[in-house]
Amino acid sequence: MVLRGITVALAAAGQPPGAGGTAELTPRQRRMARRQKQHAKQRELRQQEQPARLEREQAVEQQRAAAAEELQQLHVQLLQQQPDLPLNCPHFASCSGCDLQSGLAAPPLLASATRFFAERCAYPGFRLAAGPAQQWRRRARLAVRRGDDGEAVVGLFSEGSHDAVDIPDCVAHHPAINAAVSLLREALTACGVEPYHEASGKGELRYLQLTVVQPPAPAGSQDGGQLGAGGAAAAGGTAAAAPAQVQLVLVWNAAAGEVGDAADERLSALSDWLWQRQQHGEQQPGSLLHSIWANFQPAATNTILGEEWRLLRGAEVAWARLGGVDICYGPGSFMQANFGAMDAALAAIQAHVPAGATVADLHAGVGTIGLSLAATRAPRWVRFVEINGQGEPPFQQSAERLRASAAGAPPLEYLVGAAGSQPGRWCKGAEVVVLDPPRKGCEPALLRYLCSDGAAAAGVRRVLYLSCGLPALQRDAAALLDSGRWRLAHAEAFLFFPGADHLETLCVFDKIE
Ligand SMILES: C[S@@+](CC[C@H](N)C(=O)[O-])C[C@H]1O[C@@H](n2cnc3c(N)ncnc32)[C@H](O)[C@@H]1O
C-alpha cells in the first residue's frame, strides 16, 4: 500500500518513480520513503551478514558436537576402567526404576563429573566407589493401583506414565521388601481392600513405603528393631542370626479423620491379617514385619506421603547402625535407601574431619552425618541445623543412646531453621561445616556467606559438601572456587542408586590461608 501511494504521487507530478521528485511528496510520504530506504538497507546488511552468522552458528554447533563426542569417549574410557556391573533385572524393559542395564559402575554422569573436576577444579583424581548392584535398596516406595483386570498392581510406573507395573522380582530390592509385597498382595484380596484408581481418584490404598529393619535391638533397648547397612557386621555382630524385618507404611486415600467406619474397619482388618500371617516360614523363623503404619494422603497430587500418621502394629521407631553409630528413624524420617553406600560415604566424611574439631552439620535430617562424626572423631561439639523440625525427636533419641554408650558424646545442639537464614549463627566457631543439601543445592544466602569474609572470621576452615545433584554442585563449587577463598582438596563419588544415571558426590573444600 505504501509503495503504491508513493508511486501514484510521483506519477501525478509527471516524474517516474526514483527520479528525484521527493519535493512534491507530502511529509507523511517522505517519512514513509525514508523508512522504506532504511528497511532496504537493513535487508541488504542482513544479507551481507548472513554467511558470517551462519558460519558462527556452525562453529558453535561443531564445538558442541566435539564436546559431546569427547564426553562420550571419556565415558567409554571410564566404562573400561570401572568394574563391569550388570543389572540383570527381569523387569528392566517395563519398569522405570533403572536407567542402565549394564556398566552401572560408570553411569554417563560420571563422565560429566570427571570432566568438571579435571577442567574446572584442576582436580584430576576424581573417582567413583561402587558397591553391589543387587539387593541394595532398603527403602522402597511403591504405587498400588487397580489394573485393567481389576487386580492390584504393586510396583513403579512405566516410563513417562502413571501406569504402574508389577515388579515382584526387582533385583535392587532387599529380599525382605519383595517378600513383604508378596504378602501384601495376598492381604489385599483376602481383606477386599480397593487399590487406588488413578483416573477416578477412588480406591483406598495408594502407596506402600517399605523399610528394611535388622533385628534384634541392642540389649536393654525398648524399640524392637535395628536397621542395618551390613547386617551382622554393621550391627556389631549381634544381628547375625536374625532375618531382616520390614517397617511397612500403608498410604491411605483419605484424611485421618475422614476414613469412615467401613474403610477404617478394612484398614484394621488389613493390618490384623498382615500381622497374623507375617511369619518368615519354617526355613527362617521369626516375623517379617517390624511394624505397620497408616499414612493418610487425601490430596490428588504426586506427593506420596501425607501429613498424618497412625501406628497400627509393632514398634514406633527403628534403628540403623550407620557410620559407627545407632541412628533412630521414624517412618516419616528422611533416610538414604542404600545403607551400604551411605556407610561408605560416612567413612569418607570421617576421614576428612580432624579429630577434636568443632562441627556444624547444616542439612542434618535426623542427624546421621553429625552423629557419626560425634561417635568417631571426638569433636569438641556438634551443631545440627535442619529446616524440618520432624527430624528432631528421632535425633534426640539417637543422641541419648550415644550419651549412654561407653564412649559418651560431646555437646550436641539441634536447631530448626533454614541453613541460609542465619549462616553466621549456624557456623559460628565451627571449624568444619558439613553441607548435605537437597538436589537443588545450597541456598544462595548460605553460599554468599561461605564466599565472604564472615565465614573465615567465624573460624570455618573446611567445608564438606555431600551432593545428590551434580548440576547444583557444579554451580556451588564454582562459586566457592571463584570467591578465591576456597580450594578443592578432595572429591569422590558414591553409587547410591546403582542402575540410575545418578551420583552422590563428596567434595572437600579447604580455606586458602
Ligand atoms: C539429602 S537430605 C540429608 C539429610 C541428612 N544429612 C542425612 O544424611 O540423613 C537433605 C536434608 O536437608 C534438609 N533441608 C532442605 N532444605 C534445607 C534448608 N534450606 N536448610 C536446612 N535444611 C534443609 C531436608 O529437610 C533434608 O533433611
UniProtKB/TrEMBL annotation:
It comes from the Eukaryota. The keyword Ribonucleoprotein does not apply. The active site is at C468 (nucleophile). Residues 14-58 are annotated as: Disordered. GO terms for molecular function: RNA methyltransferase activity. InterPro entries: RNA_M5U_MTase, SAM-dependent_MTases_sf, U5_MeTrfase_fam. Gene3D superfamilies: 2.40.50.1070, Vaccinia Virus protein VP39. Residues 41-58 have a biased composition (Basic and acidic residues). Keywords: Methyltransferase, S-adenosyl-L-methionine, Transferase. S-adenosyl-L-methionine binds at Q336, E386, D436. Residues 28-40 have a biased composition (Basic residues). GO terms for biological process: methylation; RNA processing. Belongs to the class I-like SAM-binding methyltransferase superfamily. RNA M5U methyltransferase family. This is S-adenosyl-L-methionine-dependent methyltransferases superfamily. It comes from Micractinium conductrix.
